[in-house]
C-alpha cells in the first residue's frame, strides 16, 4: 500500500526536533495532527451531584495538569478557598510545579512522585497516612490507582471533575488518510463515530498502548502496528518501522 497521508490523533508537537517531523521528511509522507478526543470540565451543578465536600479532605492528589485546572476552576465557581494546611500530592515534577499558578508553592505541602505513577508517591503516602485524600480524576481513569491507595490503608475518595468526549469532525474536514495513529480507546470510539464507513476503508491503523490496541480489535478493525514492543518502544519508532517495511514491500 502506498502511504502518503497519515493522521496522528494528537496535538501538533511544539518541539521542532520531534521525531515525527524527521520521519515525514525522510519517508515523504504528510502528517496531519488532529486530536480525536478533547477534555471538557464538569459544571458546578454536575459536580454537586457527586456529593463530594472538598473541604472534608486534607490532601489532594493530581495525576495531570488538566486536573489542576478543573479543580481550581470548580473551587472558584463553588466559592471554595483552599486552606493553607491543604497538602498536594502530584505524580510528576511538572504537575507539581504547575501548581504555582494556583497556590503559594511550599515544599512542605507539595509532594512529587518519582515515576509518573501513583505508586511513585508511596513513601509520601506512608509518611502522611493520617490525611484524608481526594483524587481528582476524569470520567475515564485507572481503577488500579484506588487499589494502590487501599493497599496503603489510606482514607481516600475520587472526584470526577472533567470528561473525555469525541472531538467531532466537521462535514468539510478531509478524511482521505492512508494511515491513522491512536493513543487511547476513546480515540477509537471517536473514530467509529466520525468515520462510520471505516470498516470499508483501506486504512492502516497503529496504536500506542495495550488498551488502544484492544479497542481496535474489539471494533472489528485490523491493527497494522503497535507500540510499545521490544523493537519499537515508542509510537514514532513503530511508525518508522512500519513505513520502512511498507516501502521495502512496495519496491518488490
Major beta sheet summary? 6 strands, mixed
Strands of the biggest beta sheet: in what spatial order? 3-8-7-4-5-6
Domain module count: 2
Question: Regarding CATH, which class of the largest domain?
Answer: Alpha Beta
Number of strands: 11
What is the CATH topology descriptor of the largest domain? Rossmann fold
State the separation between the terminal residues, measured CA to CA: 12 Å
Strand content: 15-25%
Oligomeric assembly = single chain
Please state the average pLDDT score.
Answer: 93
Tell me which CATH architecture of the largest domain applies here.
3-Layer(aba) Sandwich
The H/E string reads: EHEEHEHEHEHEHEEHEHEH
Class inferred from helices and paired strands: alpha/beta
How does this structure look, described?
With 252 residues, the protein is an alpha/beta fold. The chain folds into two domains: 5-36 and 169-250, Rossmann fold (3-Layer(aba) Sandwich); 40-164, Rossmann fold (3-Layer(aba) Sandwich). It is built from nine helices and eleven strands. The strands form two sheets. The protein has a six-stranded mixed sheet. It has a five-stranded parallel sheet with strand order 2-1-9-10-11, sandwiched between helices. Strand 5, helix 4 and strand 6 (110-112) form a beta-alpha-beta unit. Helix 1 (19-27) runs parallel beside helix 9 and helix 7 runs parallel beside helix 8 (210-218). It starts with a strand and ends with a helix. The relative contact order is 0.16. The model has no long low-confidence stretch (mean pLDDT 93).
Amino acid at each position: 500500500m502506498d502511504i502518503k497521508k497519515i493522521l496522528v490523533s494528537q496535538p501538533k508537537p511544539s518541539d521542532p526536533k520531534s521525531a515525527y517531523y524527521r520521519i515525514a521528511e525522510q519517508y515523504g509522507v504528510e502528517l496531519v495532527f488532529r486530536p480525536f478526543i478533547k477534555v471538557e470540565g464538569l459544571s458546578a451543578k454536575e459536580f454537586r451531584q457527586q456529593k463530594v465536600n472538598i473541604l472534608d479532605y486534607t490532601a489532594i492528589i493530581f495525576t495531570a495538569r488538566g486536573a489542576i485546572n478543573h479543580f481550581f476552576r470548580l473551587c472558584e465557581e463553588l466559592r471554595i478557598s483552599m486552606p493553607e494546611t491543604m497538602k498536594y500530592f502530584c505524580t510528576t515534577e511538572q504537575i507539581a510545579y504547575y501548581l504555582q499558578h494556583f497556590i503559594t508553592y511550599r515544599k512542605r505541602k507539595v509532594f512529587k512522585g518519582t515515576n509518573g505513577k501513583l505508586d511513585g508517591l508511596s513513601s509520601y503516602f506512608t509518611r502522611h497516612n493520617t490525611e484524608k485524600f481526594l483524587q481528582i480524576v476524569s470520567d475515564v481513569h485507572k481503577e488500579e490507582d484506588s487499589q494502590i491507595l487501599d493497599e496503603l490503608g489510606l482514607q481516600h475518595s475520587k472526584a470526577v471533575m472533567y470528561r473525555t468526549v469525541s472531538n467531532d469532525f466537521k462535514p468539510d474536514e478531509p478524511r482521505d488518510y492512508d494511515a491513522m495513529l491512536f493513543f487511547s480507546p476513546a480515540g477509537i470510539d471517536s473514530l467509529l463515530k466520525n468515520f462510520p464507513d471505516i470498516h470499508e476503508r483501506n486504512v492502516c491503523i497503529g496504536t500506542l498502548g495495550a488498551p488502544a490496541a484492544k479497542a481496535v480489535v474489539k471494533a472489528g478493525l485490523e491493527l497494522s502496528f503497535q507500540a510499545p514492543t521490544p523493537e519499537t518502544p515508542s509510537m514514532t519508532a513503530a511508525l518508522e518501522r512500519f513505513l520502512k517495511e511498507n516501502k521495502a514491500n512496495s519496491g518488490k
